[in-house]
């Protein structure tokens, strides 16, 4: 049983499926949570104060990435060789903390600062005949790039900001990769 | 001076990173994920709409401005960490087995965060350097959008919200990573 538009339900509305958090019905083959927007958003989607906060949160993230050496090419090689627990510890405890936080939000029925319901868009399975094609195929392509470059998008930006200027080439290449995906998207299994 | 706090132990760094997920949800209902910015940045390139694939024609300001600012912040954090709080001349305390394996491939300089023998402007002219920086960057951009997320979006946000597609994607990340580290790099850097 699905209400007509689950997006605008209040977080405290009864929801047997997800225990209080309003969820979005999966949409085939779209990055739903990345292109959502709510009515009433200002043109930029963000007020100046919120801009500042997002920037500060990003800076904190970048700083932790550097100080924990997650940005290091060497640490990525070490991880894929299973010769240190460090990266697994970072990712594992990040997942555990995030899961606990999301669970608390659900349990307490919390809303956003402006009182909107909090919803987490589920990742859709896609409509390809190959099950989950976009996730394991795209994931493998991403993994190849991650290990070659030794950096995923967050660390790439942190290294660039830290003055490793050759990462500018990697960033342009990543944008070219994104553009190429956009061109080939209709021909790729999802 | 403050380089002593590096490396931050995993049990401090991981929870701090994980906290971003609930914080971003509470601040504005935003989902933590960095690689969407590659799409936002492409969408923001001022070209006639007809010149762009449909995947890049949307209102990036409404959906992505917050995240682009977040990414800008990552760059600032990277600057503070690398330039002010790290010692670039200190070699990384890598697992001895990893260091030995890298030495066998000719990678002996463990200072900085990237192997200067492979990832630097001068190394770009070598086949290995070009493959790592240009090839690696391209595949990161292509793969992240195909998979619909990267390490932050799938491995952290996706797994924390118990999404099976994210687990499949993370399996893919590892398949690709293992292939590079155990097959491609030893082949590419064979003495």
TrEMBL record, chain B:
Membrane topology label: Multi-pass membrane protein
Membrane-spanning segments: 12-29, 65-86, 128-147, 167-189
Keywords: Cell inner membrane, Cell membrane, Membrane, Transmembrane, Transmembrane helix, Transport
Broad class of the protein's primary localization: membrane
CC per GO annotation: plasma membrane
Subcellular location(s) per record: Cell inner membrane
Top-level taxon in the UniProt lineage: Bacteria
Family: Belongs to the TsuA/YedE (TC 9.B.102) family.
Protein name listed in UniProt: YeeE/YedE family protein
């Amino acid at each position: 049983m699905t209400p007509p538009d689950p997006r605008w339900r209040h977080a405290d509305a009864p929801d047997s499926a997800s225990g209080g958090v309003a969820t979005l019905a999966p949409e085939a083959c779209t990055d739903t949570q990345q292109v959502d927007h709510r009515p009433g958003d200002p043109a930029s989607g963000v007020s100046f104060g919120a801009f500042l906060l997002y920037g500060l949160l990003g800076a904190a993230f970048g700083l932790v990435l550097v100080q924990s050496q997650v940005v290091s090419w060497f640490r990525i090689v070490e991880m894929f060789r299973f010769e240190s627990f460090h990266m697994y510890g970072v990712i594992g405890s990040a997942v555990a903390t995030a899961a606990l936080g999301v669970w608390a939000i659900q349990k307490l029925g919390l809303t956003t600062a402006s009182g909107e319901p909090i919803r987490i868009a589920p990742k859709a399975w896609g409509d390809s005949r190959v099950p989950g094609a976009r996730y394991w195929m795209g994931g493998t392509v991403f993994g190849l790039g991650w290990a070659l470059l030794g950096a995923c998008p967050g660390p790439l930006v942190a290294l660039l900001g830290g003055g490793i200027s050759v990462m500018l080439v990697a960033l342009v290449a990543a944008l070219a990769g994104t553009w190429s995906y956009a061109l080939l998207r209709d021909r790729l299994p999802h | 001076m403050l380089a002593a706090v590096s490396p931050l132990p995993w049990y401090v760094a991981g929870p701090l990173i994980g906290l971003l997920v609930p914080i971003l949800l509470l601040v504005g209902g935003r989902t933590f994920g960095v690689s969407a910015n590659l799409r936002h940045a492409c969408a923001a390139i001022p070209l006639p709409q007809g010149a762009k694939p449909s995947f890049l024609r949307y209102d990036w300001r409404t959906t992505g401005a917050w995240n682009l600012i977040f990414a800008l912040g990552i760059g600032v954090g990277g600057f503070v960490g690398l330039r002010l709080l790290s010692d670039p001349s200190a070699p990384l305390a890598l697992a001895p087995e990893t260091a030995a394996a890298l030495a066998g491939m000719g990678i002996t300089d463990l200072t900085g965060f990237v192997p200067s023998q492979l990832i630097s402007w001068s190394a770009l002219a070598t086949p290995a350097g070009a493959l790592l920086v240009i090839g690696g960057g391209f595949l990161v951009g292509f793969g992240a959008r195909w998979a619909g997320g990267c390490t932050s979006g799938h491995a952290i946000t996706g797994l924390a919200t118990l999404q099976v597609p994210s687990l499949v994607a993370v399996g893919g990340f590892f398949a690709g990573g293992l292939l590079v580290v155990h097959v491609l790099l030893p082949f590419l850097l064979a003495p």
